[in-house]
């Protein structure tokens, strides 16, 4: 019971303070789950991130669900999802209307939150890079991965980068001597096996596929079933998560006339201003369409594929990661994850947040307060928002 309550409390705290989008969320998770609470090691966390990059859906939410599953089983995963999601769900049901009415999408405090994201992600890259990409060849894999992600910015590029990095790890991690010309793999932490069986994992994967086939046939009944199908498909067919789902939702929801273009864009603006996963944009759309019941159905439908895929994949992943060949591959994958974070740090985080020397200076101060003064992330969020509102930076 204590483990479940702790999971709910910690994930709720993250849901209330995790501004900045999916990549920044991974930084918040790293700071809370790896650095402070030591629930996962650096390598295990990077492996979970890599697994979620392979799966369709919101990667940062899937990482949070995966941590909950490892820590507290099925109920732990559910509580982690609820804690991280409910603050932004409620905020978007209310704040979406506020954003439409007041037009504050360009407010200074919002810009301050973008600078907070710069500091958070930089802190995560520094910590993960020291552990997972410190050797010459590992650092090379990380930099090549970052360059590839920047030069060919597609969701499928990320999958290709991770796959090629795994192949490089298998080829280069021939021994652990650390001699020139060889790649010293990252030492595997003690395995924290998710308390889920392979049979349960297979049921989850079959349920994911079954709903993907069945819901389009059931949508002919119209009403809430049609809405559930649109949101479930949007959550099932998106690699990269976050902003990538918006074109699908626009086609499925606004394109069908369920909400107007103005309502859709207003909700998108609200989603940028609140913490937590961007997929909770579905809660706003569901509210506009069918009120609170619509918000509940839309939110559950868009996140259900992510939950089923993580719960289905983890039992097999925990076994695979202990195979010697897989351990060599994971050394390359870990370095690639650092590279992908580095690429995302530049675009979109740096490019959208840093527009002046003042911005860079304020972000650097936030980084020092987080990394060296060890202030909690929520205090950094408050300082960043207050500084932006007072015109510091920008």
TrEMBL record:
Transmembrane stretches in the record are: 74-97, 109-126, 138-171, 200-218, 293-317, 329-346
This protein's membrane topology, according to the annotation, is: Multi-pass membrane protein
A Gene Ontology MF term for this entry? Answer: chromate transmembrane transporter activity
Predominant place of localization? membrane
Subcellular location per UniProt equals: Cell membrane
Alphabetized, the UniProt keywords read: Cell membrane, Membrane, Transmembrane, Transmembrane helix
Q: Name one GO cellular component term.
A: plasma membrane
Presence of the UniProt keyword Lyase in the record: no
Q: Which Pfam families match?
A: Chromate_transp
InterPro entries registered for this protein in UniProt? Chr_Tranpt_l_chain, Chromate_transpt
Q: What NCBIfam families would the database entry show?
A: 2A51
Q: Which family does it belong to?
A: Belongs to the chromate ion transporter (CHR) (TC 2.A.51) family.
> Which protein are we looking at?
Chromate transporter
> What organism does this protein naturally occur in?
Paenibacillus pinisoli
């Amino acid at each position: 019971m204590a483990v479940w309550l702790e999971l709910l409390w910690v994930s709720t705290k993250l849901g209330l303070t995790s501004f900045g989008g999916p990549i920044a969320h991974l930084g918040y998770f790293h700071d809370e789950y790896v650095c402070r609470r030591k629930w996962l090691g650096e390598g295990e966390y990077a492996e979970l991130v890599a697994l979620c990059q392979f799966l369709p859906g919101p990667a940062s939410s899937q990482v949070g669900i995966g941590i909950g599953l490892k820590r507290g089983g099925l109920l732990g995963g559910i509580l982690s999802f609820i804690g991280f999601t409910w603050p932004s769900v409620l905020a978007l049901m209310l704040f979406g209307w506020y954003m439409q009415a007041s037009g504050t999408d360009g407010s200074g405090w919002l810009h301050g939150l973008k600078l907070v994201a710069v500091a958070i992600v930089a802190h995560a890259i520094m910590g993960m890079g020291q552990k997972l990409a410190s050797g010459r060849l590992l650092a090379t894999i990380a930099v090549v991965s970052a360059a590839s992600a920047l030069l060919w910015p597609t969701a499928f590029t990320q999958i290709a980068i991770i796959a090629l990095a795994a192949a490089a790890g298998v080829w280069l991690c021939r021994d652990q001597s650390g001699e020139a010309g060889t790649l010293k793999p990252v030492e595997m932490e003690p395995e924290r096996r998710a308390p889920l069986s392979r049979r349960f994992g297979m049921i989850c994967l079959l349920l994911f596929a079954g709903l993907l086939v069945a819901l389009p046939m059931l949508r002919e009944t119209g009403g809430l079933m049609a809405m559930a199908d649109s949101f479930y498909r949007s959550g099932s067919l998106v690699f990269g998560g976050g902003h990538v789902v918006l074109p699908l939702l626009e086609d499925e929801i606004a394109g069908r006339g369920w909400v107007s273009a103005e309502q859709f864009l207003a909700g998108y603006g609200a989603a940028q201003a609140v913490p937590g996963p961007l997929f909770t944009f579905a809660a706003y759309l569901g509210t506009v369409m069918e009120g609170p019941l619509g918000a509940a159905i839309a939110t559950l439908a868009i996140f259900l594929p992510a939950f089923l895929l993580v719960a289905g994949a983890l039992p097999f992943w925990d076994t695979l990661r202990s195979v010697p060949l897989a351990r060599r591959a994971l050394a390359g994958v870990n370095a690639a994850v650092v590279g992908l974070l580095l690429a995302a740090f530049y675009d979109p985080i740096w490019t959208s947040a840093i527009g002046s020397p003042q911005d860079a200076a304020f972000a650097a101060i936030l980084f020092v307060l987080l990394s060296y003064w060890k202030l909690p992330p929520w205090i950094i969020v408050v300082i960043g928002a207050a500084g932006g509102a007072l015109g510091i930076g920008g």
